[in-house]
Amino acid sequence: MDPRIQQSLLVNRREFFGKQALGLGTAALSGLLAKDGFAAAPQNNRLPDLPHWKPKAKNVIYLFQNGAPTHVDLFDYKPKLIEMHGKPVPDSLFEGKRFSTMTGNPKGKVMLSPVEPFKQRGNSGSWVSDFLPHTASIADDICFIKSMHTEAVNHAPAISFFLSGAQIPGRPTLGAWLSYGLGSESENLPAFVVMTSISKGTTCGQIFYDFYWGSGFLPSKHQGVKFSSGGDPVLYLSNPEGMSKNLRRAQLDDISKLNEIKLKEFGDPEIATRIAQYEMAYRMQTSVPELTDFSKESEKTLAMYGPQVREPGTFAYNCLMARRLVERGTRFVQVMHAGWDQHRSITTELYNQCRDTDQPSAALVRDLKQRGLLDDTIVIWGGEFGRTPFIQGDLANRPQWGRDHHPYAFTIWAAGGGFKPGISYGASDELAMNVATDGVHVHDFQATLLKQLGIDHTKLSFKFQGRHFRLTDVFGKVVPGLLA
């Protein structure tokens, strides 16, 4: 039999449809590849029309506190709440509202005053609890947003909403959008890096789902690269035993040639992603060991981050790594710390959470500032929602005090990158239950963050399944009051 005929008979179903689609898909593919930086490689791998204006910031470090820190115990001082301690929740505050199934109907619940006292801090006079003495010491560098509100009442949908603009998994996350739109400033490190941690001994940890740093329908090269806490920070980064650097280089060159053949044959953008990621992994074999070597950090700097800074996998270690990553050109660093879900442990585990995160968070802001990096790096601290001002549990059993999920008013903070320092923007009502003035929705915060990075949130979009998607969906407005 003619070998050409024989070959045609061996074409499998995938190859058949791939080849049939090639003619129609070539034009579309060329546009995609150019847009995603695989073709003519625009400067910095950014989209050719970005930034839309001169950015105030170029990097973001998001200190995401999984489980939802309690705003009423940390940032949102309410004398009326102290006065109402032990008294029933007024009906007017919860009528028509949805709470988690753990609370159900709040009727009959009683108000719970803050566990630790508050004080006004710095020249700005911002209220911060004694739970967070280190954060209190940088109050004049922080923009507290005390009128945040969201739509989700459970953790995973609420985290997804903050990070991707949608409660349902599958949309690109914030770091992926920035990788797609602005590219990386480093050839040797990913544009989007993720690190996770949890306080030791906590009973209220949250699961870190991969979709919290996913690329959704964007090319997968834009998804977050998760650094692990043990062994190689990136899996399979080291060469296998017995393989030299030259042999690895030769192997990658051959793999790249095979992938290039398949890319020309099928036009699948994911093949281009594979090529790019193999090359990134090779370059990271040199860059990552240098990144994780703290030997050149001064003892003063290490002490500033606290006693856990030398222990990989801790929040303190990850905060110092975040500074080193943005120094070396990583666009977006997502540091996620679990354990804030204190339904029955406000009087116990909240102390552990604050002990492990307060000092490193403040140190990161100080460290960036003294190195001249805070001007163009935005640091964000906050969770997916707040906690109820009423108790979950028995008021007579103090060791079991807790608070449930609360989406209607809570606090996050931002520092650097053109956010106005030393202010408290917006306010909740006298019991920290609902937004009273200058509410900031999740999409509003996302729009404001993108503005500081030089992006009009209405113009950064990607067409998928027949419609254009963006981080803020069809909502969001920039909040000028947050900006210097």
Describe, in short, the structure shown:
34% of the residues lie in helices and 15% in strands.
Please tell me about this protein's structure.
- It is globular and about 70 Å long.
- It has helices at about 5-10, 15-35, 70-75, 80-85, 90-95, 135, 155-165, 175-180, 245-265, 270-290, 300-305, 315-325, 350-370, 440-450; strands at about 60-65, 120, 125-130, 140-150, 190-200, 225, 330-340, 375-380, 385, 405, 410-415, 425, 425-430, 435, 440, 460-465, 465-470.
- Strands 1, 4, 5, 6, 7, 8, 11, 12 and 15 form a nine-stranded mixed sheet that branches. A two-stranded antiparallel ribbon has the order 2-3.
- With about 475 residues, it is an alpha/beta fold.
- A hairpin with a 2-residue loop joins β16 and β17 (about 465-470).
- It contains 14 helices and 17 strands.
CATH topology grouping of the largest domain: Alkaline Phosphatase, subunit A
CATH architecture call of the largest domain: 3-Layer(aba) Sandwich
User: Mean pLDDT, rounded to whole units?
Assistant: 87
- CATH C-level class of the largest domain is Alpha Beta
> How many individual helices?
14
Estimated helix fraction: 25-40%
Which structural class do the helices and strands define?
Answer: alpha/beta
**How is the biggest beta sheet arranged?**
9 strands, mixed
**What share of the residues does DSSP label as strand, in percent?**
5-15%
Poorly predicted segments: 19-43
Spatial separation of the terminal alpha carbons: 76 Å
Number of strand elements:
17
- Which geometry do the CA atoms define? globular
* Gyration radius from CA atoms, angstroms: 24 Å
Structural domains: how many: 2
